[in-house]
């Protein structure tokens, strides 16, 4: 093709036809410009295809992360619903002195209250795309804003979980340590909800025989005003956490629905 145009140019020069040569030169420039524009268009098209592919992959991976979040939130919801159930049972016995709980039942219901949860957020896909600058090329800006807000709001979950943990450590544990822990048996942890296996711990405690003959006076602890104050404080924090969990679940469902519809 280059040789072809060179031959035409040389022939026009030999013929000394300036007007034809000028017309040819303009035509050649026009063809070069058209070629450049076509090349740029192809390049833009390829870039757009890559961006679309990257954004679609991002949506797919974020959807997986949100589904993991959803499963984790279900666990947190179950954990705190059971916590509220145990606290409610304890409060019933606190406010009804005529009811006898028994040391083994007392142990089963007070033991789960020692446990709290540490929140986890699956934000790897979002954080990675954000740090790489990929968001600048994505089209779904409104979805990105909603995802950014969703992950930023995780701090609300963290704060409420930490509040309960501090409350347990600073109020419940020191209060309960007044009571000898020889009330624990292999069945004491039966109501405990925890992501790690705790059966071995309670079996180990139960396997060590206690020959001290120390009586665990749980009734005096159960009837103490501080126990009622603690239960109500824990209930308040647990309901607060439950509200935050349900709110986050709703946002996660909305985001998943939006991503599925976009794809």
From TrEMBL:
Q: Does the record's keyword annotation contain Transmembrane?
A: yes
- Residue intervals passing through the bilayer: 21-42
UniProt KW keywords: Membrane, Transmembrane, Transmembrane helix
Does this entry carry the keyword Membrane?
yes
The record's section on InterPro entries has: DUF6090
Q: What is this protein called?
A: Uncharacterized protein
């Amino acid at each position: 093709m280059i040789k072809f145009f060179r031959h035409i140019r040389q022939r026009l020069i030999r013929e000394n036809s300036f007007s034809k040569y000028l017309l040819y030169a303009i035509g050649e420039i026009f063809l070069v410009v058209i070629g450049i524009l076509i090349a740029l268009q192809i390049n833009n098209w390829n870039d757009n295809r890559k961006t679309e592919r990257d954004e679609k992959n991002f949506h797919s991976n974020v959807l997986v992360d949100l589904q993991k979040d959803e499963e984790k939130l279900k666990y947190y919801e179950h954990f705190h619903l059971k916590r509220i159930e145990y606290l409610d049972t304890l409060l019933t016995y606190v406010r009804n002195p005529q009811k006898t709980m028994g040391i083994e039942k007392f142990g089963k219901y007070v033991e789960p209250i020692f446990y709290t949860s540490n929140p986890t957020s699956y934000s790897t896909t979002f954080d990675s795309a954000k740090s790489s600058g990929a968001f600048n090329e994505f089209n779904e800006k409104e979805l990105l804003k909603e995802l950014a807000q969703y992950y930023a709001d995780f701090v609300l979950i963290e704060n409420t979980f930490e509040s309960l943990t501090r409350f347990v450590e600073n109020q419940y544990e020191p209060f309960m340590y007044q009571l000898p822990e020889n009330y624990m048996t292999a069945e004491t942890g039966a109501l405990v909800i925890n992501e790690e296996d705790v059966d071995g711990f309670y079996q180990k405690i139960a396997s060590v025989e206690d020959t001290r003959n120390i009586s665990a006076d749980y009734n005096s602890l159960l009837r103490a005003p501080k126990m009622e104050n603690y239960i109500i404080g824990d209930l308040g924090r647990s309901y607060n956490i439950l509200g935050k969990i349900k709110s986050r679940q709703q946002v996660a469902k909305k985001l998943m629905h939006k991503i599925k519809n976009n794809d």
